[in-house]
Amino acid sequence: MEKILEVNDLHVTFTTYGGTVQAVRGVDFHLNKGETLAIVGESGCGKSVTSNAIMGLIPNPPGKIIGGRILFKGKDLTRLHEKKMRSIRGVDISMIFQDPMTALNPTLTIGTQLMEGLKQHRKVSDKEAKKRALEMMDLVGIPNPEERLKQYPHQFSGGMRQRIVIAIALICEPELLIADEPTTALDVTIQAQILELFEKIQNVTGVSIILITHDLGVVAKIADRIAVMYAGKIIETGTKREIFYTPQHPYTKGLLNSVPRLDAKGKLKPIDGTPPDLFSPPKGCPFTARCPMAMEVCNKIYPASSDLSDSHSVNCWLQDERAKQLLATMVTN
Amino acid sequence: MLKYILKKLLVMVLTLWIIITLTFVLMVSVPGSPFNSEGNSNEIVQQNLEKHYNLDKPLHVQYLLYLKSVATLDFGPSIKQPNQTVNDLLGRGFPISAELGFITIIVAVISGIILGILAALRHNGIIDYMAMGIAVLGISIPNFILATLLIQNLAVNWEIFPVATWKSPMHMVLPVFALATGPMAIIARLTRSTMLEVLTQDYIKMARAKGLTPWKIIVKHALRNALMPVITIMGTLLAGIMTGSFVIEQIFAIPGMGKYFVESINHRDFPVIMGTTVFYSAFLIVMLFLVDIAYGILDPRIKVTKKEGE
Hints:
Helix content of chain A: 25-40%
CATH topology of the domain at 93-298 in chain B: MetI-like fold
Strand order of the largest sheet of chain A: 6-7-8-3-9-10-12-11
Largest sheet of chain A: 8 strands, mixed
CATH superfamily of the domain at 93-298 in chain B: MetI-like
Radius of gyration of chain A: 21 Å
Structural class of chain B: mainly alpha
Low-confidence stretches of chain B: 306-310
Radius of gyration of chain B: 24 Å
Helix content of chain B: over 70%
CATH class of the domain at 93-298 in chain B: Mainly Alpha
Distance between the termini of chain B: 20 Å
Mean pLDDT of chain A: 88
Shape of chain A: globular
Number of helices of chain A: 13
Number of domains of chain A: 1
Number of strands of chain A: 12
Strand content of chain A: 15-25%
Shape of chain B: flat
CATH architecture of chain A: 3-Layer(aba) Sandwich
Distance between the termini of chain A: 47 Å
CATH topology of chain A: Rossmann fold
Oligomer: heterodimer
CATH superfamily of chain A: P-loop containing nucleotide triphosphate hydrolases
CATH architecture of the domain at 93-298 in chain B: Orthogonal Bundle
Largest sheet of chain B: none
């Protein structure tokens, strides 16, 4: 399969008064054409920073990409000039934000906001832009598009606004869409509709999607592959099936255990403790302090990646042969 | 829209009536009359004069006569300068005051907004500190001090600008500068703080994600939202500039309305006091009304005309 995006060893830091936060500490992943990759993790693990880095929207200062590459169709985005990057933003790569209530400018009409990206990047007449805008409104399922174009954001409901935000992101036919928690701010019923819309859009336009979320329900619905992120690193990646049915990393298992299920009895099992302080991240595996299976080595050396299949890989010392032997002897004793 | 304007007009008339009444009460309760300051006038002359200007009538009759003069927009002749009517004075003074006020507000708004934006875009940088330094100076130095300093240095010592009066554009520089600095500083500080807030909003990030140029993001997306609070304080600033112009007109010997206003109070020149007060009040009320309308146009969420549902 053709890789549309490849992120290698990405490092992003933020300089603050309190010190330097290592928000992203060597992230590797790739995205194939036409697939949906979900990046999952709890708040502050670096998901959004990673997506902002791809968009070139890390505010500098205080933020800085200090290492690694972001290859989009073979071009390294980290080396591109701001001007060049502007011609990629919104055209080749688009982004959808978390809260549709604040993502739209309250003083401009929906039509203006929908068409301005198109007018910025393509030589189109007003008539053509409007035609395209109406097509997009139709695609994202907004009734009375003609009339709606003239209205302002406050005249739309949350779900409708998110549809507009999606339409804005897609109007220049991007090849990559980054959705940063696109359903978090919405009602559950509206969430389901928006997720269905994502599936529809992918079928119609063939766009590749990176879905940033902490909601495993959302992931289960639309992701093809999943990357689990923790403390600025990706600790496990695999297909949806692999992650949900054969999770390897204790953190991934913990995440899955903390999802409420209709068929399960007893209490939910949350993961104890809190993520490490990224001002001074631990040398070894960052999950050690919360990990029920932690060994001495975990604290000292970060585990290398082990491949379980072509698509499934995990960074955990439990994959080491010696750990497996140890576990086996413990079980027999 | 028409209904809204009519309603507003009614409130405006009511406001004006309250102002007129208050002014009248203040006027008659202040000791002294237009005539008794001159020691040489005898009893009979004074009585005749009072009769001529209806000052001998009971207060409620005087009050009604005043109301009538306001309603007909004819304030009669000035007591101190009987050969001129109040309307003459207004007709002569207002264009000059309006010119001064208008130029001042334009200068204050444009320079204030530019200073505020520059400060916000270079937040915590040298430009920010410089702009805010200027703003603090502008707010803390009263315009009459600034005016005298300007005259002393730029007009008297260096002779770059004329000292006083209102004749050519060169004459306008110093009074406008003195009058505009305060409002400019307020606008600059306000623009900076709202701009800083607006720049962190999601829709600005979204505009960047669309690949728009920084210029477009600032002018089209940020500025419009950042200017809302500035529009809100425009009414207060206008009032400030108007009252400030009394002092500035005195200092620079500009023959505007402010001069007549202050003189009329000193002389107890009742018709002129009444005329200028009503005129100033009416002007300010209309301006505030226009600010209201402008607010509704800039921010579609504020609907002045009709309520709209989802």
